[in-house]
Amino acid sequence: MALLPILCYPDPRLHTVAQPISSIGEHHQRLIKDMFETMYESKGIGLAATQVNHHERLIVIDISEDSSNPMVLINPTIIKYSTEIIRADEGCLSVPGIFDGIERAKGINVEFLDERGERKMLEAQDLLSICIQHEIDHLEGKVFVDYLSSLKRNRIRTKLLKAQREVDRS
Ligand code: NI
User: Collapsing DSSP states into helix, strand and coil, what is residue 15?
Assistant: First the structure.
């Protein structure tokens, strides 16, 4: 297993639209293991392949407190959104240290393949619903800050670029 480098906003590669996976191979199993390790190490609750610069439609999620509920969603598609909306503070491993309120559907129905290639359907609510929507956005090349005003987004961009320059210099 290996820790993978996570792309950091405003890296343009975060805006790549990921490709569907037609057959799940040995390299996908390795990628899934590495993505879980990377996500747990970074204390995240979700990670999309896009964030580790791998542009296929694969996400890993674990919203449990004790890393006990790993979920793999391959080629996920949301087939139903609740009309009820919730607003919650979101963060992202690709946008370190930034949190802001985002509106999402409170509930979704999502279809996907699991890591064995079996078709699954899941009804998700609240945090899991938010997390799945956030990760699927990554596969579409969208980062949560894209929902914020351009003023806020530019401030975040400047702050993160400055932080990255300081890391590069040290
Ligand atoms: Ni994210």
Answer: helix
